[in-house]
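We modelled each protein-ligand pair independently. The example shown here corresponds to the flavin-adenine dinucleotide entry; the chain sequence is given first, followed by the ligand as SMILES.
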Amino acid sequence: MKAYDVVIIGAGLAGLQCARVLGRQGLGVLLVDRNFPGKSIHTTGIFVRRTLEDFDIPADCLGPPLRHVTLYSPARRSLELRSPHDEFRIGRMGRLYTDHCRCAGVDWMPETRYAGHSLLKDQLVIRLDSRCSARWVKTRYLVGADGSNSRVARQLQLESNREWIVGVEDVLANVPLEGPPRLHCFLDPEIAPGYLAWIAHDGEEAHIGVGGYPGMFDPTQALEKFRAGLGEIIDLRHAKQIERRGGRIPVGGVLRNIASRHGLLVGDAAGAVSPLTAGGLDPAMRLSTLAAKVVADFLDSQNPQVLGSYSGELFRARFTSRLWMRRIVATARQPALMELACASLRLPILNQFAWHVFFGRGSFPDVNLEPPHQVAVGAD
Ligand SMILES: Cc1cc2nc3c(=O)[nH]c(=O)nc-3n(C[C@H](O)[C@H](O)[C@H](O)COP(=O)(O)OP(=O)(O)OC[C@H]3O[C@@H](n4cnc5c(N)ncnc54)[C@H](O)[C@@H]3O)c2cc1C
């Protein structure tokens, strides 16, 4: 049976980042995903400025920069927000995952599903199922980067996500761009209860999506309705659909219990998503970088106290106000109330707040990104 220092389940952004950092430290790493990289993408892929500054994401995996946001009320009254900086770039996620995977420098098993594990002395024996066979590998440590509904979390008896929204979007080509690249956000509890609907258009691709609490709306129907009502904002007459994407987004805040002697969680599996904006790419990069450092230190020292620095409890404090705001957004179900809230965003102090939500720089707590943990995501 082959043995590894670390087995990572999930080759999304979180698992890939963790694999790269651990691989560079010379550890024997196996990265496993039930899909091929770049297949079944579920994210719009909007990267914020802070991620682009701290991680060297290859330019050919990013679209043109966006500085403009238009916020719409349910009655489609608009509010313009503009930053002097390039705030967002839409990732070309298929290319990014493939590139990332090639550069990870670790053993890689696509189309292989983690089925569970057992404990043998101080090691874990992991069961991996591929289409027509099952195999077992040994590892000293397991990393769950397997998304919002993490099997690894359950098997390791760590905490699991309990609150999420669902999002669905169409990726379109041949959509003319009027004006500069722009993110349009629609606050409308009928088509996006508890979150928002969006158009992200960087001049090359247009992403049109809706998100909200499951049980309160039908995402596919809401997306059709949303698209049908966009005639005055965007010209979809010649649009060509490239993809439909969708999935769950955990919004309950980073989980408290995310590490044990045998494994830990990163990315969506750890609930590392901003509860208010539902942005998970920056937290995935930062938390995975920290996780890789903690895993390497733990394997080196065998000192369980090292794991104490990887506790969701330490990060949650930072999100208290956003968790409260999530509660407020979740209960704002009346369009008239939302209209009033949108109108109040014209007041200078609340306008400043809206500006801060979109362009502020606090997506996830800073982790130690000093060398050698700072990672150039694209170039090896
Ligand atoms: C519609 C939508 C739009 C979004 N837009 C944005 C955005 O614009 N900006 C932003 O910051 N965030 C966005 N998010 C959130 C963001 O995409 C996620 O937080 C982030 O991608 C999480 O990365 P991850 O690696 O933790 O998980 P994932 O990308 O979900 O990766 C998990 C991986 O684990 C694999 N896996 C799962 N179970 C198993 C198993 N048993 N065995 C083997 N492999 C397994 C899956 O195949 C998958 O590849 C969006 C989310 C959605 C749903």
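Residues 9-15, 32-35, 42-46, 113-114, 145-147, 151, 167, 169, 209, 245-247, 249, 267-268, 273, 279-282, 284 surround flavin-adenine dinucleotide (CB under 6 Å).
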